[in-house]
Amino acid sequence: MSNTISLMFAGVGGQGSLLIAELTSLAAVSAGFDVKQTEVHGVSQRGGSVETHVRFGRVAKVHSPIVTPGEALAVIGLEKLEALRFAHYVNAKEGTILVNDYELIPGSVANAEKIYPHEAIDFLKSKGLRVIVLPASKIARDLGDGRMANVVLLGALSTLLPIQQETWDKTLKLRIPAKYLDGNLKAFDAGYAAIQKIPHGGR
Prior knowledge:
Blueprint: E1 5-12, H1 17-30, E2 34-37, E3 41-42, E4 49-57, E5 74-77, H2 80-85, E6 96-100, H3 112-115, H4 120-126, E7 131-134, H5 136-142, H6 149-158, H7 165-175, H8 178-196
Helix pairs in contact: 1-7, 5-6, 6-8
């Protein structure tokens, strides 16, 4: 991998992929990295596919926010189809696909349940990719709010990045509104703890 860390966040509008990309960028800035983040690509309204690129580095200035296919240290999929859709961005030798074990069936697509790629995770693993599957939506629901699945995934992602936990904690406290902060701190910690229990081989 290069001195620049590249990340791809992929989800559906309303899942909060943009928020965790922003939190990652803010934490990286706080940790002293030069950071670039794209605007959202795709259709950002609820139900549409959303992707966000984040790149940061310390040795050399980051000139472009765009992640090229095969470059990402991690692809973070907030649901299975989006993980599959953007899997080609991961570095096949050294990268990780971090997937929420969750399916969001498009209500506007005919026969969506039948054509949805339910075996997406098995397919990605069959390609020799390092895939870590986390029940982020279930963890978030157990904490009282399924919408926090994105922050559960962020907690898991933090274990793969060279950013200290106190920096993440400070970033969450600065960015998350006070009435939602306690729940999101718990969600982050739950994701951090959950990934420790999963073998990191993933192949």
